Input
Amino acid sequence: EARLSADDYLVKNPIATYFVRVKGDSMMNAGIFDGDVLIVDRSIDPSIGQVVLAEVDGEFTVKYLGDTKLLPANPNFQPIEFKEGQTISVIGVITGSMRKFV
Output
């Protein structure tokens, strides 16, 4: 079998794609763990139900996109409700992840 390139496998649009490291466990039930590296594609229009990287009042977070809130995948965390006067921006859609064991 041909040698697998992580870039070829995980990145569809190199100009609009970048990697971010996860800090925290709010998405652990989605298989996203502290220390994982996520692939973020800014060229994809986000849809309800997708996992996204968002900026909320200057802080970055990874959550499921809902119609009026950002939803964690850990019952120990509360959803982030969209409120009047709050600055919320979806940065990109999470298209994959990488985890190092050793």
In short: The first strand starts at residue 17 and ends at 21. The mean pLDDT is 95. The chain is about 5% helix and 40% strand.
